[in-house]
Prior knowledge:
- This protein is α/β, with parallel strands linked by helices.
- It is built from 16 helices and 10 strands.
- Pfam families: Methyltransf_2.
- It comes from Corallococcus llansteffanensis.
Amino acid sequence: MPAPSAPFPAPSREAASPRALLHLLFNGARALDVVETALGLGLLDALEPGPVTLGELSARHGLVPTRLYKFLDCLESLGLVQREQPSDALEDTRYRGVPGLRAAADAVLGPRSLERDREKYDWKALHGRLPEVLRGQHAMSAASFDWPPRTPEQVEGFEASMAAGLGPILETFRAHAGALWPSGARLLDVGGGDGTLAEHLLREHASLSVDVYNLPATEALVARTRERAGLPAARLGFVGGDFLREPLPKGYDALSFVRVLHDWPAEVARSLMQAAFAALPSGGRVLICEEFRTPERLAAQFFWSYFLIGVDACVSRLREVEFYLDALTAAGFTHAHVRPGPFELVVATKP
């Protein structure tokens, strides 16, 4: 056991300078190699609880101390590791990973990460050609990406990508489910993809039933999800339609928009919230789980911000949460408020 030591210093809140950030961006491939290696070797499991000395790490994992020292410098330069050096003896240098590092590395770099899923999109069609794209001389071809998705292959690929990113959203729904709908409720998941979100909610709430409202082209995907989960159609249903052209279906206790409204201009988003008000009964709730504009979310959405530069039909607007709170109040809802979580959830009630 190492001897007790002074409290580890708090992480610096000073932001990296533009030059420091650009140095790191230029070395992005090497930086990812370092973090993936730290994750794969199990170093993050020891660093995050920390503090742990370099000597302990090198002995535990069979690593050369002087080489590990430089490796940890790489992690420190990325802001992922804090370091305390009580003396010049390398093996006594203490380190600690920033809180949440292990989970973040797994989420972003792990085998089922969103970033790996996004690699299947044809982003290379834009790479190195952004000046032409910005001048309107080059764009993403419809064969590579069309919005809304039109071919069966595009629909399936897009919905699979949306399903891959549901983890944080499900965590938020789990945290607040008891206050989102009454027992025995019927939920309409507007633009609910292939039904994966509905499937998870149904597994956790035995008295809930969910209908996915989506374009008719997605019905087969929802049916596949239902069959895979062994759920009856009475619990996981499908309603085909186009919310840009038709009123939202009635007869539900709650209605959700999960990563739907940010894909449309402000007037369309507002009209959909008004349509939700018209469809819900008195006491019904609308649930909005969105890509709100925060530094964390902008970073997580970097791929789509980049990719959609070349797609004029879709903008993917990350709005401040106040936009939704104000629009819900204007539509007639009351008690509009934000419930916290990895993806914040806006909830409002029809009086």
